[in-house]
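Tip: read the tokens left to right.
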């Protein structure tokens, strides 16, 4: 399923190709599931002749802002995509979409844009480009809205990790009363918009956090690191660091043992209603014992490094509970390869570098 990085890639492509152009023609396929609160024929009439002035995104939704008209709001669902005629399209990891066929299979609308820029010259001497919205499984959604950020569905979504990541203090207040498994919270779009199954597993693996751990143990930088890097490489999974869990998580069901790049076994459990890839060697489920009448505030916590020395971790949230490790000896003597790698050597993006990306 396309997640925040893949949706951002689609938005960027639409921005490059459509902004500044006018919608000259619209072809539609009737589909009362994919089109929401608007008939396909009415969709075509309402956007015809409108100029695209900007694009935007929040979570897994992206949109085209039209001058003096409604906003085209799109959600890719499980297999949705956009295609521009004559250009190679984005392929999901297991995608097999034919790149050269036009119109593409399973199209829901095809919009013809006209401008004086570069593109295909039509019979009237004007430059055109064509965009198709496709969806084989009919789980994508097409809407027309008037106030895109202040009406559903976007108004009901949580913060966007790229656009509106809360401060450390705000993030702490969102978490410290929650006890749901952290994987379930990450997938809750009303909490954080844009994170899906593979990104949630990657965030937790990079943070050395067990997916079933209570939510109050997550940190700000772990969300930003993974999300920012995936966006920075335009969601091209071939450019994801080879140390990422992403490259190894897809082998569930194979007879041989599934391992990470360094040989640690990957197991699969259901957490938050979703199949979850876990690396027990570095993701230990901790027991939590509540401490009565303990005053607490979002102070930095401490972390034990490979040599057993306590080192500070500025952005790690201190829970209002005492956390007891199931095996303190294992944590205290964790091997060097289990430590969180840096971007330069092992694919981690520093918080300072992440800010530069955004």
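Filled-in amino acids:
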């Amino acid at each position: 399923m396309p997640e925040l990085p893949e949706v951002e890639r689609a938005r960027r492509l639409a921005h490059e190709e459509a902004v500044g152009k006018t919608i000259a023609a619209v072809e539609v396929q009737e589909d009362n599931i994919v089109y929401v609160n608007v008939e396909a024929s009415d969709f075509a009439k309402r956007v015809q002749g409108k100029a695209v002035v900007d694009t935007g995104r929040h979570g897994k939704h992206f949109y085209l802002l039209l001058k003096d008209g409604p906003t085209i709001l799109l959600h890719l669902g499980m297999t949705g995509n956009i295609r521009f005629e004559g250009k190679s399209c984005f392929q999901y990891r297991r995608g097999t979409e034919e790149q050269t066929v036009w119109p593409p299979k399973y199209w829901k609308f095809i919009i013809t844009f006209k401008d004086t820029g570069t593109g295909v010259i039509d019979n009237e001497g004007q430059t055109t480009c064509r965009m198709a919205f496709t969806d084989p499984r009919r789980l994508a959604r097409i809407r027309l809205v008037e106030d895109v950020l202040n009406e559903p569905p976007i108004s009901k979504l949580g913060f966007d990790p790229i656009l509106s990541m809360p401060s450390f203090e705000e993030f702490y207040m969102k978490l410290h009363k929650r006890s749901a498994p952290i994987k379930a919270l990450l997938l809750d779009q009303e909490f954080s918009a844009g994170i899906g199954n593979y990104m949630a597993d990657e965030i937790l693996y990079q943070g050395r956090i067990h997916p079933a751990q209570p939510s109050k143990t997550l940190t700000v930088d772990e969300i930003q690191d993974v999300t920012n890097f995936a966006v920075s490489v335009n969601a091209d999974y071939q450019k994801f660091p080879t140390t990422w869990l992403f490259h190894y998580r897809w082998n569930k069901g194979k007879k041989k043992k599934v391992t990470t790049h360094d040989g640690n076994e990957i197991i699969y459990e259901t957490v938050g209603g979703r199949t979850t890839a876990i690396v027990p060697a570095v993701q230990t489920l901790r027991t939590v014992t509540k401490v009565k009448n303990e005053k607490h505030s979002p102070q930095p916590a401490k972390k034990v490094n490979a040599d057993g020395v306590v080192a500070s971790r500025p952005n790690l949230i201190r829970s209002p509970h005492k956390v007891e490790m199931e095996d303190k000896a294992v944590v205290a003597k964790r091997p060097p390869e289990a430590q969180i790698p840096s971007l330069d050597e092992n694919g981690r993006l520093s918080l300072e570098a992440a800010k530069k990306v955004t």
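The domain at 4-156 is CATH 3.20.190.10 (N-terminal domain of MutM-like DNA repair proteins). The longest strand covers residues 107-115.
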